[in-house]
Amino acid sequence: MIDPVSMRPTVREVIANPTLRTRVLAGSAGVERELTWAHSIELPDPWEWMGNGELLMTTGQNFPAGAAEQVHFIRQLNGNGIAGLALAERMAAELTPEAAAEADALGFPVLETAYEVPFVLVARAVAESSSRDSQLTKILRVYELYRQSSVQGLSEEAILDRLGTEVGARLRVVSIDTWDVLVSADADAPALEPEVVGQFPSKKPLPAVTRVRTGDAEYLLLPIGEGKQFALVAEVTSAAFDLVVLQHVSTIASVQAEKRVAEAAAHLHESTRLYTQLVNGSLDLESARVLMGSLGLQRGPWFTATLDTPETIDLLRLQQRLLRAGVPTLVNDVRQRTMVLFPVSRKKQAIPILEAAAGPAGRIGVSDVTQRLSGIADSVREASWASQAARVDDARTAWYGVDRPLFLPGTVTEAKAVVSRVLGVLLAYDEEHGTELLTSLQTYFDEKRSWQAASQKLSIHRQTLIYRMKRVEELTGRHLDDLDDLTELHLALRTRRLLDRETRLG
């Protein structure tokens, strides 16, 4: 008799039905297990395609012959909540003693169905004995709950929370590339634990279902769409959890993921456009204040950071990580470098994220504090110079005004004044006479003041280089054997190189 409370059949009812001609081979202690459904599956790793309480029926194409392999097969089925295994008589490999002992120890029923009985009869018997509308009712409830929540204007987080309560799981929509959380029902702790992520598949597309266990917690990973971009992570919180219903939730989650990505892309577009306008000075300050306010950056002061990295940085991913950490920001590739504007008050949250994005080989330069919107263009240059200081000093992050080399001028105006005062006469002479005194001086320093190396680099005779350097001394009034003069020339050349780079990239 069917349990009037659960209205679900048990394994015992299957073997008690004389028309099904099914007997127990092992695991008889588990015959009271309830059945939600029965499936005939011949695919490898069938547990990835099945839900809790379901009976696996197989002709043996996926059932191994070896003892160790059979034991593993049974453990996987039992560990993934499968109610039992039905093998086709005379078709599947014979159950080994080792596997039978494992089934007995687990109380996992292994059945054998007579060769003459098609599996469809077993599936139909289970279906007819079940409460026919129970699973369908749950599925319809999920879609109705989503419809009502959408009409009420609830956020994606609130909708995911409601759906999770309905299916008995804590839900999160994640990006497969980074396992970053896009939408989470729990805003306070949205990140996935490293020990969970470490067990997720590394290849795409994802399998139909991946089960992960850490301690007492069980997680299921379901692909969203084609399983190449997004996935749904469900942390099981209820014994009444139903995988089939969860698969319908993953369909709903695909809408949420696409919506969130579209919103993020629109935010990035606004961010990069505004950043470009601020740097170029092509936007009036009043309009800029309004747009900054719409992005959560209405109040300064701000820092500008530049990320000097060998690899291209995904701006969308970087901005989303900052926003999830509560850091309103502008990001852009300004002058072929990744630039980030963020409030000074969010420095502690922003810097670790920027360092993670830059990677071990990357360097970060941070500008001086920017109080005014009109100063953002200068802060970009300051951050760029600071990043070069970081690379020279082999530091992860350098702060302009603190870590920058002392020779760097405080502003672009000061930099131009230094170049003009020290090197201006050489620039004018080269332009008037078509000479290369400045280039020769730069090469002389680049080659560590080696006359031979510098002359070879310039493809001139050593005596020609010596003559040029004497002319440099005459024009500038500075002598190469005087340490102070030598330092002034060297630092002025480095400052000019920085300015030239800004001009080329700007």
Key features?
single chain, 506 residues, alpha/beta, Udp-n-acetylmuramoylalanyl-d-glutamate--2,6- Diaminopimelate Ligase, Chain: A, domain 1, Beta-Lactamase, Alpha-Beta Plaits, 4 domains, five-stranded mixed β-sheet, five-stranded antiparallel β-sheet, 17 helices, elongated, disordered N terminus
Question: What would your notes on this structure say?
Answer:
With 506 residues, the chain is of the alpha/beta class. It has four domains: 11-129, 3-Layer(aba) Sandwich (Udp-n-acetylmuramoylalanyl-d-glutamate--2,6- Diaminopimelate Ligase, Chain: A, domain 1), CATH 3.40.1390.20; 134-260, GAF domain (Beta-Lactamase, 2-Layer Sandwich); 283-399, Alpha-Beta Plaits (2-Layer Sandwich), CATH 3.30.70.120; 412-505, PucR C-terminal helix-turn-helix domain (Arc Repressor Mutant, subunit A). Helix content is 47%, strand content 16%. It contains 17 helices and 15 strands. Strands 1-5-4-3-2 form a five-stranded mixed sheet, sandwiched between helices. It is elongated. 35% of the residues are buried.
Helices, strands, pairings?
Elements: H1 11-16, E1 22-26, E2 37-40, E3 54-58, H2 67-79, E4 84-88, H3 97-106, E5 110-113, H4 119-129, H5 134-151, H6 156-167, E6 169-175, E7 181-184, H7 194-197, E8 210-214, E9 217-224, E10 230-236, H8 243-280, H9 285-294, E11 302-308, H10 315-324, E12 330-334, E13 337-343, H11 347-358, E14 363-366, H12 376-393, E15 397-399, H13 412-433, H14 437-446, H15 451-458, H16 462-476, H17 483-505
Helix pairs in contact: 2-3, 5-6, 5-8, 6-8, 13-17, 14-15, 14-16, 15-16
